[in-house]
């Protein structure tokens, strides 16, 4: 697990992809001249923002004129201040006023850029909630309520961000609009399955492929229209009629001087973990980086694979380690504590009961699963019996979406603290 996280360390990701070559920078083989008379600004948002900003600062040194990057609470290393780049903490996954005020300052900074300036935008997971600027007529409180309803409904991150992009002034390519006519380079640490640029942090620097019509259909799909502000419905319908301009699309000229680079992803983390497992003597397989679906249903599939591994049947002989990456969803039915990774673990407890020498470990790579301080949880063949002895019924906890307190009682939570990176989730299936 540690090797997987190390493989997507934000500082390493920057230093591995971005090189200073005299008065230019080289990124993945593309070279960009540094401004001779213009200025360099650094902006961004995401859980990995602080170490990313630190790495860029080390490369460009005193050439940076000014900068502001928004990170999640607890994700700013106060012991390592960064020259000329301010780090601001804000709320996640529900946006808050600190994020809105910091985003307002980013917009003000970009409004003063010139053609010969360079803007470097640092994007990582969590950026959608952290960098927020509601459209005129919609309040932050209304966006907060919408986000909460979408999260509770089991909507995917792609669907949540489609709504965000049409109710926000910086998402869906609109940071590029503010930055124009300056050169804009985005360095992106992906936390979305498949690495779609227009979904990661709601794609602030890339053309938006979604529409107002799609945003409305998502509300209908999850039947939450009656639970959110009527102002949001009215605004989206106005956009659908063409009364409000849509987000910038592929042929928009604002993207002429914009270049986006993915410098880290779930695949990279999975490959790093795979190499370490091989060194430890395991037969290994990176099964997928597209793990998606309702957490409880995914748990059944993972448990089935583990049962097969335990019987010495394919896909791997013991000792074996199968790694999967992606991001599941949870449809809330109870009022307990937990997250999608802990929910997967809890939903597998019964199916794995009594199986010898196996383990399932699931974790969020940012160190925070849901709104908890745990990254994930561990399940073995003995977990069910231990729970019974402690008077814990996993099915009752599952119905209440209270995976955190179930595993806390067994001391089986994975606690990493903030990892300062974020590339979706990882699941490990061990057969010893």
What does this molecule look like?
This protein has 2 domains: 9-133 and 168-210 and 247-264, Rossmann fold, CATH 3.40.50; 267-431, glycerate kinase, domain 1. A hairpin with a 2-residue loop joins strand 1 (18-21) and strand 2. The longest helix has 16 residues, at 295-310. It has helices at 2-7, 10-17, 49-60, 97-110, 127-130, 140-153, 157-165, 174-179, 212-221, 230-241, 266-279, 295-310, 340-348, 383-389, 394-399, 403-410; strands spanning 18-21, 24-27, 30-33, 40-45, 64-72, 86-90, 118-123, 183-189, 258-264, 283-291, 320-326, 358-364, 376-380, 413-414, 425-431. The chain is α/β, with parallel strands linked by helices and 432 residues long. Helix 12 crosses helix 13. The radius of gyration is 22 Å and the shape is globular.
